[in-house]
Fold this protein.
Amino acid sequence: MAKEVVTNTGAMYNALTNGSKIVGKIFADSDFRIDGEVEGTITCKGKVVIGQKGYLKGSISCLNAEIVGKVEGDIMVAETLFLRSTAIINGDVKTKMLMVEPSAVFNGTCSMKDFGNTPETE
């Protein structure tokens, strides 16, 4: 019998596509992209991307984040938070580094310091 060989050709990530909705808690060990809707919390050891049609009503705790869509809630990022020009944030932010493109909307407070290690997932 031939032995099956599996080769990893790219980075592993999770995705929630446009038109999908999750209500509850998300725990991820690798990157997570949201193009749908989440009502709850996201805890991720990697990068969280909220796509242009993505919407989160809740909170994010992750290593890095890129927001292109809308977040209503608090964001805690251990390293870098990037707000693209189409981002809309209504909530408080804690991050080590904040990058904001012109036209991004940010309503809330921001605390910038080293918050330590990657968020713990269950």
About this structure: Residues 5-9 have pLDDT under 50 and may be disordered.
